Amino acid sequence: MESILKSIKKKKIPINPAVVISNKQDAKGLKIAEKLGVNIEVVESKGFKGNRAEYDKQIISVLTKYGVTPRNGLVCLAGFMRIISPEFVKKYKNRIINIHPALLPSFPGLDAQKQALEYGAKYSGCTVHFVDAGMDTGPVIIQSVVKVKENDTEKSLSKRILKEEHKIYPEAVNLFARKKIKVIGRRTKIS
Length: 191
What we know:
Rossmann fold
């Protein structure tokens, strides 16, 4: 999130950030967004256990309040560790993007770096993708490869992957903002 907001502030991405939403009052990203002059909102998730659709209605309400609509908005997930309801995904089809610390479709879900190390992968990396109804299964926008070293730990691999995430997530947002991404079935075409 910070990389995206800083790129926007430096006018590298022609988009206006409307709001940063968190489900936790003490999220580090809220302070960063506030410091960069972006509106912040907290929609606590504690009372919505098991009811994703109701929680997502609250999120959509906040997005709408700030003018982030299914026709003109982009929702960037960054550290938002909740599964989004099918209703939300359908409403914002191809307007929700996420970053994942693996080369999808390999190692979806939690602990991707740990999965890569346990599997013995020689390469890992990160993927920016559109969100669909599945778990890390949406069309891939951009990926970056990171070589897995013999002595890598989950922490050391995560650190190198994070550096790449900070490069490709703003790049993907820029491509979206410039209308350079076309989704054709499961594939994306970058023009």
